[in-house]
Write a structure and sequence with these properties.
The protein has two domains: about 170 residues, Glycogen Phosphorylase B (Rossmann fold, 3-Layer(aba) Sandwich), CATH 3.40.50; about 160 residues, Glycogen Phosphorylase B (Rossmann fold, 3-Layer(aba) Sandwich), CATH 3.40.50. The chain contains 15 helices and twelve strands. The two termini are about 20 Å apart. Pfam families: Glyco_trans_1_2. This is CgeB family protein.
Amino acid sequence: MKLLYIGAESGSSLQRATAFGRIGLDVLHLSPYALLPSHWAPWLNRAGGPGIDRLVANGLGRRIGGQRFDFALVDCGDVVGPAALNIIRKAAPIVVNYNADNPYLEPSPERLRWSIFHRALTHYDLVVAVRRNGIEEMMARRGASRIDTIWQSADEVVHRPLSPTLEEKSRWSSDVVFVGTWMPGRGAFMARLIEKGVPLAIHGCRWQRAPEYRLLRPFIRSDHLEGADYTRAIAGAKIGLVLLNGQNADLHTTRSAEIPAIGTAMCAPRTLHHQQLYKGGEEAVFFDGAEGCAEACRRLLADDGRRQTIADAGHRRTFANGTYNEVLARRIVDRVADIKHGGVR
């Protein structure tokens, strides 16, 4: 089966594209962002990206040529509009969108970032989104017709337990780690953990924007991480923290799957989704607010045996949950087969 995969050639998009290849598909991976000038992001976010769709359409037309595919998958889709989808559909009879973000909120908290996506939404044969409260209704209001919702996924190859070298242990070891971008509210949360004595290591970008940056600065180890370094930072920690993006109405994130997949004990907000995915106190530890997080970390750090038991149980649970990219890829392939055979829209 031939797949035309349109998405970033980095991060989780690249991991998903590679997973389709591992399950046996012949994948042509094209990045729409490589077809745009370097200033495309502010152009999209501040002005809605006029002209971006046409640039992507023209570039894809040149790259695809006369090739034909069984289906196409657009990962994210923030710069892929109706014109680009017309080009894609000439090469693939079924076009799927997968978006791990939440472009369905009304109004969108991200200014004009999803303007192009919204214009294209009705053109997809299948739209796959991450589970959130009321997400199906949000998607339907935006024009999506055939909908599937899934858990966030880890990657079978990238996110797995490691056997670090002495040099890696020296570089990446920590007690409590958070790997992620600063967002409003996260600085205050981290500051409270520090005040409560939690031995933090923070990796991620934009933390200099935090009002609490002077307090946080000694605990910030690096900027953005992905791939092997992302895994090493989590694998080198005794506890991995999950923080949610409230603007996206998240009840779980990619880290909810990745931290246990890597084999590190996870400390996460107490949400319905986390409680569906893991047994609290056995496969993960849940908290309510910064005070509860600090106390949960303190107890886990004081009990090596219990912490390792939770880490091992959480790792096993990821396989029972099926929160992996190859599982997601097979699910999408099955849905495409249903569409081909006249499945109900």
